[in-house]
Amino acid sequence: MVRVLIVYASDHGSTEKMAKALADGVKSVEDSIAELVKADDARIEHLLSCDALVIGTPVHMGSIDWRVKKFIDTVCSGAWMQDKLIGKVGAVFASGSGYGNGGGGCELAMLSVLNNIAELGLLIVPLPKKTPGYKVAGLQWGPYGRAHAEDLSPKGLSDDQLVSSKHHGMHIARVANILKDAQIFE
Amino acid sequence: MVRVLIVYASDHGSTEKMAKALADGVKSVEDSIAELVKADDARIEHLLSCDALVIGTPVHMGSIDWRVKKFIDTVCSGAWMQDKLIGKVGAVFASGSGYGNGGGGCELAMLSVLNNIAELGLLIVPLPKKTPGYKVAGLQWGPYGRAHAEDLSPKGLSDDQLVSSKHHGMHIARVANILKDAQIFE
Amino acid sequence: MVRVLIVYASDHGSTEKMAKALADGVKSVEDSIAELVKADDARIEHLLSCDALVIGTPVHMGSIDWRVKKFIDTVCSGAWMQDKLIGKVGAVFASGSGYGNGGGGCELAMLSVLNNIAELGLLIVPLPKKTPGYKVAGLQWGPYGRAHAEDLSPKGLSDDQLVSSKHHGMHIARVANILKDAQIFE
Amino acid sequence: MVRVLIVYASDHGSTEKMAKALADGVKSVEDSIAELVKADDARIEHLLSCDALVIGTPVHMGSIDWRVKKFIDTVCSGAWMQDKLIGKVGAVFASGSGYGNGGGGCELAMLSVLNNIAELGLLIVPLPKKTPGYKVAGLQWGPYGRAHAEDLSPKGLSDDQLVSSKHHGMHIARVANILKDAQIFE
Q1: Which residue among A155, A185, C68, D37 is buried most deeply as judged by most CB within 10 Å?
Q2: What span, in angstroms and rounded, lies between the C-alpha atoms of A46 and A52?
Q3: Neighboring chain B residues of C120 at a CB cutoff of 8 Å
């Protein structure tokens, strides 16, 4: 049994929708359970008991949401100092308004998360372009849901935009199952 | 009179279209001329005689086009070593297919360019969201033209998508005029 | 008279030392005053009354400190929504332990800040390599003070490592004076 | 048997030294062979027959060497278009002069490579801080060898600075062995 921990913050529900779709993908894989925890509530115990850590963030001002960063600075940092998560699996997803047709900073927001994930020593699962749903909600680093239309009206995420998150969850759970108990890093 | 040098590479013409629109913006500002040079043809003399350097790149595999990088590594590097361009003005623009609705790496491609521009010591002109045309071809780092539709059919850049480039050219020329002959860096 | 606002967070005093050195540089330029405000205390009024915004952050887990990000998400974002700071001047600095000889994520931390600065529409002042003190505390994006020795003993910042911050402050104040009242963005 | 392909460019030999150390690490793992290929010589056949792709680059002007980018744009792109490498293993390393004590752009250079690696759909192996040799040649994204002293004299890489590369090679080979023939991505 592998446990995939999904930590996220959400303003208007889009990141949460993606988190739930990702959890559905995890649960569709044999021997895999998903645990959804809001960034404000996540504790080091959640980290220590998981096999994979997935972090989801709204895109704010071109980078990570401050509540997600607070979780990283105050919770993940302790696990990092003590090398507690090395060799587990990591991934990222994000939602945003996508102001300006170029993603509005979604890539740097995801990299702000991935930098932490790399520091923790997690194997990173990217999102290949052939993943179902990639065209409407994908970036190579992970699922990206653009919640606003081009004219910035808040249309919300469609079901189509949740498909890539679900498949990302499946990929992550499979990698976590394969790597479980592996000795990679001395 | 200020001279704005625009160096670019282009595969199917989109980056070139943006370069020309940006040049039009430059020329619409008093006392300002634009010089368009392909990356393969750019020489250090072009750099030494300009007041502003604008670099345009197609997005390839999530970062800068290799021809643009060759220009940076083999031409700009010499000017950098000798501190020749410090205090001039710099900016970036990019075009891409935008595979995957999150910009397909456009942001890191632009930052690959901006890293060079920062090393050269150029004052960086960003693209504010209120710039005309931002919604359909803008990122905070500069104009970004997505040349494909969501289903990846190659629709090309529309006239609407060139408006932000033109205005970026105007902003750059204005800054170059104001900073001309200024003593900023000792 | 130009007002340079320096917003920062600090854990053990290194970022604060850099902030003060930067302020000294600002004040050494004619017609320039510096205002130091901790991220927790910064309000939108500080932003509206400044001519240049400089943000300093400790490097935590490879990106921006969460308190600085909270300032950006909850204070800067309002000014961004209303296009209130466009055409002002912006810059960044950071301190960190530099775990691992490659800067330990200092570059992405600085870019997390600069993404916000670009979105606000600020002209970005980089740090050219010929700046005094660059060798011991410089990155092209701005001053970077590594507060730990290679063996990670907390040696603190030396006076040498504050020189680049002071000169960055001088550069920023000069640019702010030149651009004051300029009409760049329509 | 897994095959780890190491593609790199090198100016003065530092990146090549790291490539060879990484290959030594690969070969020390059971059932693992390493293949060293210069970027100019790498062909799509090399990519198709490998189980892991490791790309090494000198840091030039804050990002990837243009010869490495040419390999990515002209060789990797074909494999990407056809989804040929999805589910393999990927990693990065870099060497540079480290001008300025903050790594001189090493992080964005590594991310320029990783963006390609993520697009190819490779599982990314980071470098945890407890890896032997991390303190003198490590960044969370992979080994980083700073070839110059602080005063920029070209001291070259010491043996100590090659240790993290060797261990990175061991980690990569182990992951490649575990993931071989796994079905992760549908």
Answers
A1: C68
A2: 11
A3: 128
